[in-house]
Amino acid sequence: MDKQPRLLSSKLFQKHRQVEVVLSRSVLYWKEIEKSRKRSSCTSRESETAHSHAVQVCEIVAVHKSEEDDQGDTKRGRLKKAKQQSQLYPHTFTVSYVRRTRQHQWRCSDVSFHCASQALCQQWIQVINEQLSLLTNRPKRLLVYINPYGGKQQGKRIYEQKVAPLFRRACISADVIVTECANHARDHLKTEANLDKYDGVVCVGGDGMFSEIVHGLVTRTQTDHGVDQSRADAELVPCSLRIGIIPAGSTDCICFGTVGTNDPVTSALHIIVGDSQPMDVCSVHHGDVFLRYSVSLLGYGFYGDVLTDSERKRWLGPARYDLSGVKTFLSHNYYEGTVSYLPTADGLGNPRDKVQCRSGCHICQHKHSSKDKQWEMSEEEEKSDKDRWSTIHGKFIAINAASMSCACPRSPKGLSPSAHLADGTTDLILVRKCSRLDFFRHLLRHTNKDDQFDHSFVEVHRVRTFRFQPFQKQLVSREDPSEPPKKKGFSPMCSGQTTCNYSKAHSSWSCDGEILKHAAIQVSGYDVNMVKIEIPDKHHLTRSNHKEKLAVSSNISQLLAGNSYSCYSGTTL
Ligand SMILES: CCCCCCCCCCCCC/C=C/[C@@H](O)[C@H](CO)NC(=O)CCCCCCCCCCCCCCC
Ligand SMILES: Nc1ncnc2c1ncn2[C@@H]1O[C@H](COP(=O)(O)OP(=O)(O)OP(=O)(O)O)[C@@H](O)[C@H]1O
Ligand SMILES: [Ca+2]
């Protein structure tokens, strides 16, 4: 039992057993009276032994008065005892709470208590509700967008059957919009939606749908504050609304990588209890032209080609990625170009340190507590930054920038298992030209415990910003001549043959599942404060508590734009 003062304590009935029920500020606790001398125990979260239970107040979904005949046991026997008890204790209230099950999944469980008087029953409901009302991070009004065509086209059903009943139980009101076309949600958020009415925005769909919401909210916020987001050095204003994701897509890596599972009920419960998790956002520019924001994977070569091919097979649902994956693997293309990057300062770990990002991650907290020191650099530091840029020219099968692990059911540890959600950096993975067999070995390691970076043809760097320039000769002929001229200093330092066996001139970038129309890009401004989610971990089940709004970075150099957004996430709000 926790040490906090009791707010309320009564002897009530649970099913046919008499229980002592105690509420403190943080815990609702009940234990069977008769047998308690023999055995009793509790833990700080929901726990259960033979005779005692404890639920954290912050994980109570709701409390309701129940119907008098709502006494489970009457159906299952013990009729006589239950009948007597219902006469003695006819007034019942039910507490719905979060129950953890296996593999980070959450479920909503109910426990009903029977009281001798109506007044006592009302008192319990009132006191619990008072405690719930103190939890100010919980959303009350949500704007929900459903993509009916994401993943297996189950978005509407998932929301109606699994999520809406939970929101109703938690007294959350939701305005629902089923999208009618791509970018419907983005454009509605950009111009039409009355955002003052809501505590958060929820998307029911996959990573692409989440990306739409991010773009809609970020653009709206910049427009409202007169910020020109197309400038790479713009100091962006954080969004005040959080984003929640109900997974209903094909990859759902943002949900999986933050919550630990792709389960709509788990996500709905995280949203209800107000869990939150900031996330890095980076901006992608082509010269002075803003292309997109990214929170998960920017992939050129293999993943870009998989995505391009898979778009033609959307009708196949999530299986399109496997088919296109095999086809792309067999094509075995590689691409020539130059990658330049600015490595991170010390203290933010490295992609091979095996430190995984979990609730209360010290790397991400360090980033926050240092008040974005990393971004607030003196002129001298800025100058020395220029010397710290590294440049690699080569032939690559894949160039991947993972701002988070990109864990998903296909690859439960992800493309970069030690990447952090909110450290302001991305892990840049370069897979050089190698044999098919070697590339297969590398891919296979994404599905088992072996280190996918432990190959001579793979290198990985934790970076703050990077640029890519495809081999120039193709660039000139392929890029759109109507685009503004590229920035100086952004041209490749490469020379060499133009194409080789199995080599096409250019691939495309997949940016969180959307194809970018330029191959030459600069990626910058990693910063935080998006998505909210608890990041569960078998060994460390503590609540993530990142609520602070971070200072927006930027002003470091022309190439850095600070992007700091507050969004709900995958499970969050
Ligand atoms: C031998 C088996 C190896 C399996 C290796 C699996 C690695 C999977 C890594 C997945 C990383 C996902 C990163 C997330 C990207 C999202 O922003 C984006 C939008 O949702 N999703 C995809 O681009 C969707 C990307 C989906 C990529 C699927 C790739 C499948 C490769 C299959 C290769 C088979 C070789 C077989 C040889 C006979
Ligand atoms: N009503 C709609 N009709 C057609 N396309 C839509 C509609 N609503 C949204 N979209 C677009 O569908 C695309 C894919 O959606 P989503 O991300 O939800 O599913 P997915 O691609 O199957 O999953 P994942 O991104 O996780 O791989 C998004 O780019 C989004 O812009
Ligand atoms: Ca990161």
From TrEMBL:
GO BP term (any one): ceramide metabolic process
All residue ranges annotated as the DAGKc domain in the record: 137-288
GO molecular function, one term: ceramide kinase activity
Annotated Gene3D superfamilies: 2.60.200.40, Probable inorganic polyphosphate/atp-NAD kinase, domain 1
One Pfam family in the UniProt entry: DAGK_cat
GO annotations of cellular component type: membrane
Protein name: DAGKc domain-containing protein
Gene that produces this protein: cerk
